[in-house]
Amino acid sequence: MSIRYSVVVPVYNEEAVVKECYVRLTAVMESMQEPYELLFINDGSRDKTEEMIDCLVEQDKRVRLVTFSRNFGHQAAISAGIDLSCGQAVILIDADLQDPPEVIPKMAEKWKEGYDVVYGKREKRKGESLFKRVTAKVFYRFLASQTDMDIPVDTGDFRLIDRKVCDVLSGLTEKNRYVRGLVSFAGFRQIGVSYVRDERFAGETKYPFRKMLNFAMDATTSFSKKPLKIAGYMGTVLSIASFVYLFVALYQKLFTDRTVSGWASIVSIMLLFNGVTLMILGIMGEYIGRIYDEVKNRPLYIIKEKNGFSEEE
């Protein structure tokens, strides 16, 4: 019997939540009474996460484990799950249980109605700081304003994806990945299912501010060229302003009795121009760095071992 659902769960140092995650996912998937697999992607965990999932593989033949050679990042883990899954529908969900598994049957219903992608849309975010909620809200709306694609706001990677969409995603080879953006890029029929995001069950977040900032940069540079255009506009405006100021200074020097005074203001203007120039170079550097990653053509992830797969797989 072919597998109906593949549940992809990326894990990184999640020993505090693995068991509860398995229990809740199993209860939900069994209630649907259709064949499924639980595919855990161990993204180079340094705690007992791998050992605990190995035990689950021995107890439950529907559990599979893929272990990376090191930490390659959350988006690479999701991509590996999509590549290695074999279900007709693939469900992406984090192990921390902030996205409740109990929403999965609602997603499956929409999928059976003919939708190819069913994404979770967060109505409320419990247990998160005001700073995290505000910055997340601003980021999603900023990204939506910067790209021509329809990337739904207030959504994460929690979603159900049809096999044909997964095949398209597996064919996309870019290295700095923003999976939810790639899903929007692929197109097909998509719809959202609203839910309330819970507090983290246990453990610590794997997305501190620094990683969130890098993630936001990946998302912006992957799907928008507007920052480059803005940088160009700023450079043009400042160049025009500097030439105008130059002519004003020359006029005062040659045709009036006033000399150019105010070294403090001149230095301030120079610092402003230099700062903007460095910012523009930084924006260009972000794009060039991502081009560099693509040109090297290194693999997105490296698998150390797999457990629970047949020899053919």
- In the predicted model, the low-confidence regions spanning at least 5 consecutive residues are none
Residue-averaged pLDDT = 78
Q: Largest sheet, order of strands side by side? A: 7-5-6-4-1-2-3-8
- The value of Rg in angstroms is 25 Å
Taken together, the total number of domains comes to 2
**What is the highest CATH level, the class of the largest domain?**
Alpha Beta
- Secondary-structure element order, N to C: EHEHEHEHEHEHHEHHHE
The dominant shape is elongated
Find the count of extended strands (DSSP E, 2+ residues).
8
Quote the distance from N terminus to C terminus. 16 Å
- Helix count equals 10
The structure class reads: alpha/beta
Q: What's the helical proportion of residues?
A: 40-55%
Write a structural description.
By secondary structure, the chain is an alpha/beta fold. The protein is built from 10 helices and 8 strands. An 8-stranded mixed sheet has the order 7-5-6-4-1-2-3-8, sandwiched between helices.
